[in-house]
Design a protein that fits this description.
heterodimer; A: about 160 residues; mainly alpha; Arp2/3 complex 21 kDa subunit ARPC3; B: about 280 residues; Thrombin, subunit H; 2 domains; six-stranded antiparallel β-barrel; six-stranded antiparallel barrel
């Protein structure tokens, strides 16, 4: 378990570099997929809800420190996302998750929650209706992240890599 | 008690952890302006940015080709726009000058645009987009902001043809603005010249030449050109005076037709005198 924590944090940094350099190139109307969240869901489904919640907190903390977000905003969003993704943890089904679209659907749910909560702390457009905001800043990034997560489903090795 | 706590923890530890972490996160929200936090963030951000910069450079190299292509396209589009704007600028400047001219001249001016030009060596003519329906008649002088362009030769309903000064057929009485000496200006196929000027006449290079009030075509003092040189000084009793016209005939676009004709009665009277 401890190895998984360390591994999750080690993978986090190169992935963050990719997220901040390459991913903006595939932005659609300013919406970009969240690779960190895909990673978080992946490790949560591997190790359980508590692991996911704590890992979400750590990822949020690192993101807030490194990217210059409002300190605490990503921490809240990622912690809750990890917690929600943890509800789908099932030791018997985890290999099935990574080989089917279920993984992307879990990513969709977590990413939507993550983006929606994060937008509350980072957006200045307070006059927008909550439904519009949910779709614009929650659903769209969530869908895009879920679509990108399909790549992981397609190329996931048959045998457990960890 | 301990067993109870242990059982509660076992059953709800996910929620306790979540609550604890969320409390920590909310406390963090209030620490945004804390100098120590700012310092830590600055260091973390700086370190990460340095490593990202290297990767970013690699990504940028891959981007350069498509970026170059895009910039070239934009460059070509901008070049076309700049050319168009330059053209507008030239037209604007000409039109401004014409407006100034219209404000200062009291004669009725009919604006017209050159729709075609014919510059053979001997027969310089321009076609204007104003005709008899606009009040244009044969014999009316055509000017622009620089000076006299020519004389209307023929008109249709909507168009008219003007002979420019560089036309064999057009002969005009002009005068030296300084010395008030009159002479006949004509186009000899090479230069505009005032012919048969007695050597005793006071004409010097640099003098301004304007239309003379003696002219039966244009009796208004419209500027024509400037004296360039005196020819045939050594031989004969007459000089030939070369004139550089003010108007650049190759660039005529917007012009005005002065809506006045020389009085027919005056012409008739002169003719009568001649007849007598």
């Amino acid at each position: 378990m401890r190895v998984l924590y360390i591994l999750a944090i080690i993978i986090f940094f190169p992935l963050l570099v990719v997220q901040s350099t390459v991913i903006p190139l595939i932005a659609i109307k300013g919406v970009i997929p969240d690779l960190m969240l895909i990673l978080l869901v992946y490790f949560t489904l591997r190790s359980g809800q508590i692991h996911g919640t704590i890992l979400g907190f750590i990822y949020g903390f690192l993101l807030d420190i490194i990217t210059g977000n409002i300190f605490g905003s990503a921490m809240i969003a990622k912690t809750i996302s990890g917690f929600v993704a943890g509800y789908f943890y099932n030791d018997n089904k985890k290999d099935i998750y990574f080989k089917s679209i279920v993984f992307s659907l879990i990513v969709l749910l977590s990413a939507t929650i993550d983006s929606f909560i994060f937008s509350f702390f980072s957006s200045v457009e307070l006059e927008k209706s909550i439904i519009l905001r949910f779709f614009e800043q929650g659903m769209f990034p969530g869908i895009y992240t879920a679509v990108v997560s399909l790549i992981l489903v397609m190329f996931h090795p048959r045998r457990n890599p960890f | 008690m301990l067993r109870f706590i242990s059982r509660v923890w076992e059953n709800f530890k996910e929620y306790f952890i979540l609550t604890f972490l969320l409390i920590l996160s909310f406390i963090s929200l209030s620490l945004n302006q804390n100098p120590a936090i700012k310092k830590v963030r600055a260091i973390a951000f700086g370190s990460f940015a340095a490593s990202t910069a290297i990767f970013s450079d690699i990504v940028n190299i891959a981007k350069v080709k498509s970026e170059n292509e895009r910039l070239r396209k934009i460059n070509a589009e901008l070049m076309l726009q700049v050319n168009k704007l330059r053209e507008y600028g030239v037209v604007n400047s000409t039109l401004k000058n014409l407006i100034n001219l219209k404000d200062t001249v009291k004669y009725p001016l009919i604006p017209a645009l050159t729709v075609s030009k014919s510059f053979t060596i001997a027969q310089g003519t321009i076609t204007l987009n104003a005709g008899s329906e606009n009040g244009v008649k044969a014999g009316m002088p055509v000017i622009n902001d620089r000076g006299l362009v020519g004389i209307i030769y023929a008109t249709s309903n909507n168009f008219s043809i003007a002979r420019t000064l560089k036309n064999f057929e057009l002969k005009l009485v002009v005068k030296d603005e300084r010395s008030r000496v009159d002479g006949i200006l004509k186009w000899n196929g090479e230069d505009l010249v005032i012919v048969n000027v007695p050597k005793t006449y006071d004409i010097e290079p640099g003098d301004r030449i304007v239309c003379s009030e003696l002219s039966s075509i244009v009796s208004l003092p419209v500027p024509v050109g400037v004296v360039a040189e005196l020819k045939d000084v050594q031989t004969g009793i007459f000089n030939s005076v070369k004139i550089n016209p003010y108007v650049d005939f190759s660039r005529i676009e917007n012009v005005f037709i002065i809506g006045v004709l020389e009085s027919k009665m005056k012409n008739d009277l002169e003719l009568n005198f001649f007849n007598k």
